[in-house]
Amino acid sequence: MDFSGYKKPSVPLGDVIHEFDLEVLNAPEGMERIQVESDDINRPGLQLTGFFDYFDPNHLQILGNDEIFYLQRMEPEDRAEVLEKLCSYHPTAIIISRNLEPAPELLEMAQKHHVPVLRSREWTSTLMSDMLSTLKVWLAPQITRHGVLVEVYGEGILILGDSGVGKSETAIELVKRGHRLIADDAVEIRRVSNRTLVGSAPEVIRHFVELRGIGVIDVRRIFGMGSVKMTERIDLVIKMEPWQDGNSYDRLGEEVEKINILDINVPLMTIPVRPGRNLAVILEVAAMNNRDRKMGFNAAHELLTRLSEDFSD
Question: Is 185 marked active-site?
Answer without folding.
Answer: yes
